[in-house]
Amino acid sequence: MPSQKELIGKVYKMVPPMLEKFHKGMLGRVAVIGGSEDYTGAPYFSAMASARLGADMSHVICEPGAAAVIKTYSPVLMVHPYMRSEKSLSEKETIDSVSAEVVKMLDRLHVVVIGPGLGRDPAMQETCARVIQEARKRNIPFVLDADGLYLAQTRPDLVQGYEDCILTPNVVEFGRLAKAKNIDVGSEDPTKLCEKLAVAFGGVTIIQKGQKDYISNGKHTLVSDGEGGLKRAGGQGDTLTGSLGTLLAYRKAYHDKIWDHDDSLSKAETLALAAYGGSCITRECSRLAFKERGRSLQAGDLTEHVHEAFLSIIGEPTESKL
């Protein structure tokens, strides 16, 4: 298995330098889909992590009630109140019309993160299912977390075999996904287990979060075991999803060759590197935030350390003209 230094060196190659010739949007247009009436923090933390890691444009697509709240958190994010729960559908609205409105956004995006603050409402879930189907048709990478993973659990065909998909389950969510694929989680070591589940889903990339993060697409498995914080505050996984969103956008920029580079990394390799880099940055955010806050640490404390963690773990490309 390659060393952390070797892997991070490759992640570094994938990060675009900051050049005068670039225009707004070239370094990442990422959307987080979630944000229900009850959960407004998760999509904010995810989208802000994406922005702090350098995405040019960070969107949140959510319910109107959540949108009004999220807009008060920061003027940085573009918030779109397009999602609807069953009870918030008006007489003139249907799941078809709501889904069409959200799907229209896809042509403006490089990456979609689905799940933060989504909830289990059937209308919200069905809208996201349709977004996944359309994202696949357009070859848009997506990340599933939290209640987005419920879709992979209950409707595995939505993600089956789509290699530009990253699932980010914690231990409980991993168990549910494994059960959906008839895999016994108690029978094998974690490395093999993550690999086995990735194979069962047809080669999607899985980040099995825990004391160590196991990352596998079924063919190759990496272990991210950098030091993190000791406080297990809810919402830290949202920093991971937002970071993944931006790194996947950087991956697109790399393969689109928007700057001169040696083009030595394959698409399969850069997907794994995005997953690994996101894990390492999030663990470093947790370490830095815990060092500062101790047991009072909350999810929002990680947001303020995203750029510092990026500089510490990966570093600014030397071609940057800052």
From TrEMBL:
Binding site for ATP: 209-213, 228-237
One annotated GO biological process: nicotinamide nucleotide metabolic process
InterPro entries on file: Carbohydrate_kinase_pred_CS, CARKD, Ribokinase-like
GO MF assignments: ATP binding; ATP-dependent NAD(P)H-hydrate dehydratase activity
Enzyme Commission number: 4.2.1.93
Subcellular location: Cytoplasm
Positions of the YjeF C-terminal domain: 7-313
Binding site for (6S)-NADPHX: G117, N170, V171, V172, E173, F174, G175, R176, D238
GO cellular component: cytoplasm
Gene3D superfamilies, sorted: 3.40.1190.20
Function: Catalyzes the dehydration of the S-form of NAD(P)HX at the expense of ATP, which is converted to ADP. Together with NAD(P)HX epimerase, which catalyzes the epimerization of the S- and R-forms, the enzyme allows the repair of both epimers of NAD(P)HX, a damaged form of NAD(P)H that is a result of enzymatic or heat-dependent hydration.
NCBIfam families assigned to the protein according to its UniProt record, in alphabetical order: yjeF_cterm (TIGR00196)
Family: Belongs to the NnrD/CARKD family.
Listed name of the protein: ATP-dependent (S)-NAD(P)H-hydrate dehydratase
Record lineage: Eukaryota, Fungi, Dikarya, Ascomycota, Pezizomycotina
